[in-house]
Fold this protein.
Amino acid sequence: TESSRVRHEICVDEVYESQRTLRMRDGPFRLVPSVGSLLALFGAGIWLWRLRGVLRRCFEIACFVRELMRSDGVEVPESRTVLHASDYPGTPPSPEQVIRAEELRQAGNAAYAEARFDEAVKLYSQAALLNPSDHLVYSNRSVCWLRIGRPIEALDDADLCVLLAPEFARGFLRKGAAEQLLNRRVDAQASFKRGLSGSQFDSSLQTSLEAALRCVQSETSGLQAQIWGILFVSQSLQMERLFQALEDPQRLTAKYVEENKGELDSQYECLTSTLRIDLGSLLASPVLRDAYDRVTFACGQLLQWAPEAVTKHMKQAGRIVEGLGLALRCGWSIHHGVAKFSANALTILASSEGADDKLRREATRLLLGGMLRWLLDPAKEPEKPPEDRDVCGCTFLAPRLSAATWLERLFERGLKPWIREEVQQFPDIVQLAIHLCLVIRDERAPTLGLPCILRLPAVAHAVMESEAYIDLSTCSRRRFTRPRGKVSTASGDDATGKEDGAAKEVRGEEARKLAGEEDGATKESRGDEDRKLALPPAQRLGEWLMASLGYLLVFVDDDVLFAAHACSALHRLAIVVPDGVSRFCNIWIGLPMLERLAMLATSNVAALEFLSLLARSSDATRSAMCSLAAAFCAQPQDRHHRPLVDAPGDATAKVAAAEVEAEDPLLQQQGIGEEKEAETPTHAHDSGDSGAQSHEHEASLGEPSWIETWHEIVDELWVTCLPTDDETLPDADMPACHLPTTSDVVTLGNFSAVAHQVPVHGQVIVSGTETKLEVSSVPAIWNPRFQDSVSSDRFVVDDRNEIGGTDWHSGKEDSIVLLLRSQIQKSPKTADWATAVWFCAEAGARAALVVNDLADDGPGQAAFRMGLFGSPVPPIPAFMICGKDGDLLRNASKTATDSLRANVCSIRGISQLLLPASASSSSAVQPPSFAPWPLTVRMSQDIALGWALLETVLLALPSHSEADVKASLQDALGQLAKRMGLHEKRVWLQRSLQRQHRGNTDGDEPLDPPLAFLECDRNGDQLQQLRKQMLDKTGLAGSEITGEFEVRFKDESSVGSAVIREWMDLVAHRAFLPFSNGLLISFDGGATFLPNPAAPFLNPHWQGDFELLGRLLGLALWHQVTLDLPMHEYVCKLLLYNGEQPPSTREEDALQLQSIDADTWKHKVCWCLSKDFCPDLLGIQMTFMDVLVGEEATSVAISHDASSDSDSPLPDVVSQSDVLAGTRQGDEPLRLRCTATRGTQVELVPGGANLPVTEENKTDFVAALLDWRLRGSLVPQISAMLRGFREVVPSRVLSEAQHMLRPSEVHALLSGSRDIDSRDWEKNTRLVGGLSRSHKEVNWFWQIVHRWAQEGRQERLQDLLQFATGSRRVPVGGFAHLMGFGGGKHRFTLAKGVHLSAKSLPTSHACICTVDLPPWESFEDACQKLTAAVEVGRARFEEAGPSRGSA
């Protein structure tokens, strides 16, 4: 260090001076010891000792280098690849694929012989895709890379070649040649010697290897010079000063690089030499490994903080990029941070807008090649990860998982043109997509990279044209067994509940196996069966990737960006080849995907366009969409509680219910009971995810894996070789030759033909002497198809005893047992559904009913299909019923005076009419019929989704379709529109807007929506800032505000949807609502607002200001934000009808004026039209005029010099011709014309100031007054508002909305509700992070909120709502429809603040409507901290804590 160096210099000087003094005084041989001299000698000794250490270290390194040159080099640890047979995650390629791959390799050899190296690389890459374990392909391609001059790619292929074939000598020759070009002479020497030690070479190859070895051994001095240069030459380059600058990223600016480029070039010329050092040398020396780590940091740090300046001003920029590409590949052998830091720097450079194009393209190529190497590495995450696992925000320690992170970051800023070109030209991009899909799908790696790659046209075309068939999967594999257990039927003796002893003995034996009472032979047999793993059948590459992407689309929740890109990728894959759509329709996960697409289509235009494409493809797909629409629109099935003797009043109720049912023209499809409205839809085969919420074991499973999903789809949608009603299913497991294929299940392509064979639901009938109950159920996955009918004279409800306990087994012989889902969760012996049913069978039961009674499923407590979770198939059937039906059956059991009989069964789907002909319909043709939707839709009735699907089908019908079909669909849409609530209408409006603005997805290149950005000073003049945006055509006044809209407050870093919501409310409150601005006026005390009639007379910018207001209202509809700017319903009516009003009578106009200004209506209109009208009694003359600016409002006009006509004061009386042009633009503050002291009046007719109102012309006065108030005073402002409003809501959408929405509904969509219902808030709250309703923090939070509500402190509740969500108003439908990130529905959430102390304030994540609660110690502390957080949170983002800025 510098201090040590100075100290050593002082010690030497002291020794010299002391010796000179002694010689002068006592002679050369006489020394008198002193304290100073002793200290000096001691210091000199220390200095010499340290110098000895440095010399010894240099000598050791020199000896190491010398011995390294003489020896065979250091052995590099063996790597692995997933392409090797021992790690390959699928079945080997078929013989046909191998033959085709060999043909392509031979074609590549021919191209190489003709020096067409680029073409040869492409051919070899296609061969590698068909036969990925063929080492010859990589060996041949490595030579091509060498000829092209790309040694890093050549080394990648050569490495892969020798990993696949360690005895292949020619592969080591290629590897050594590439290493020699990279100046890795020690590694090259080791490779050539390894090749000579192999067995697969001839004499000519041996000669080549020996010659290459001699050549590289003669160049050993180069490495010595390199290492000595690193050790000693670097001392003169002031490296310490460089590293001090690198530690402070704020200094790494473009100016710093430009000013120090000469010095930086010298320093990095030395540093980048380290990145080319031999891997063998590197791994053998801890000193070199540490130096390599520091050099990687130096190169990556400078490049990622100043990529443009480095690539434009530094001569060594190319060496830095190449060195980081090498570090990317060998970094995992040193430290995971080396590899991650290199990847981060290359990613930033690759996506940099201003960087040198050649270098950023090179960075992209090196990054893609490195990521492929990472993806092919089978290394797993360590069981005990180190503390320093987080590097550049990536915490993965397995290379393949980390690769998904950096590929996501490469695309998250958008598909830059140069990145798009390099990705499409990368020869192994399809191979990369395959293995990226594996880690995302099976190991839950970051998701965005895959759809971004697949949506590129060239990549999509290569995928769909590929002849490869694959079945790759790295997830847990479960033995495939078809549920084949026999059950009793409702015939013969079994109908009375009797069962022979043999059957009971069989069930008892099977149940004892569950409890562990099985002999060794049985266990060994079951062990062999468990090893029979069944992957989903091999599919052509295009179908495999589409199915995998669909699986991710179904199960990846709360990722709006991924959903958009995934839908775009599916659309691209389907249209890039002629048969793409039909191939998609035949994938096995098509039905769950259709559900997900239908739900996404409400806010995702890519999903909407893909749905339209599917609807145009075939009648089968349209039939499936109509069936799904019927499922979405079906009313919950009525619970039939039919007593044998009607109680008083029951008859009336039945008649009323029958009348309601008769009035409803829509299909009453047999459903599964009242269901909750799931924010994230869960599909029928998603029983793993649903069950996971109910039990600790199931929670660890999460959503079902790829293989589990395939098995569950087969269980639910199996259609091949179904037995007839008279046949029974065999008991034995299905032989391997009959394993299902993708054509054996219901798909979109065969829906019309086979969907009716799949059961939609089950039926439960419980009856007694006085009662008969019939409820719907969902059969378990293991139930035999249509052969699970069970009857019993004993219906047993056991909701108290522990399942499997001592008391459980008694009293259940020959019964149908009802148990609760909460029982399964609490019992330590029941790991899953199947285990609980096994215990029922052990107790002698014939069937089981499971009640979904858990609160986490919401008020509806929907039933869903139970899965196996890898457990043995139970010998008895099971059904699930919803919570309310369970309560009904339990109450009936408690109140029954005699024993109850029960019958359970699954019911075959019967084709039904989607919409029966209505009574008022004049058409005699019945509409078409469809099979019921074969999956259980776990969501409440959603008419908007059904309406949207039917509309998509109608628009996609071919022109030659029958007129009756079109008429029936139009009739259905009309009926559904009448049934829509306001929430459904909002979904419809959002879908229409998405289709209008983002419906062009058929271009050759995917287009990202444009970005509109604005920065707002929350303390500045908001109207002036808006005017500046209008002048610059930016922000709210931008040309495309329906793209990606981003708002940032000045000196604040937060962005997101919550910031947008807060900015909208801020602008509404400070720019438009203030009375002093003269833009809006209220006649009802601020409850609603209208355009101020005086604005066109006072404001020279009035047209621009009102256009901005229209843009703000349209933007609120686009983002589904409820503004604290309640426009009057009449204004909403004018906007809805595009400024045009339907004809109206004078009486209707009078009522309209009454709703706007009750005082004017009462004191002028009513009085004038009354019999008591006598203007002389007023003492003043009443003329044809109306007040424009009252005396109380004159103070709002700002006086200034009258330099133009628009600046002159406003006279006492004006006419409609005195309106200002209002077209002046500028960013100056608000300036209004002066008005007369006594106010200003406006003439209702020309010369109205001199025209008195008399008995004879009073009706003319009223007509003129109404015309002015309802039209003349509003039309100019409304026209200006419409110019801005139509930028978001075009005229075509407005014309459709006139038939769908009422003005009052437009008002509700824009403004929501100002009053907050605390009970509704609590009811629609989610608890996460370990919180429950019993926690004191939760109880205290709601006590505070309810107390504020009881005290009428709505302002405080609105502050809390804004703190949590960014908006002060409750959306339409209450808190159940709260909007979160990206306009998606997101319930209010309370989370456990594990990062907070007891003294902390609560923090919020407003974009996801979440508040983190600290561990408060008392109610008083909770009240104080919550109040403080709400008050501080109003000021700005980030002041309430770090999480507040996460919006």
About this structure: The chain is about 50% helix and 5% strand. Residues 189 and 215 are 9 Å apart (CA to CA). The chain has a mean pLDDT of 76.
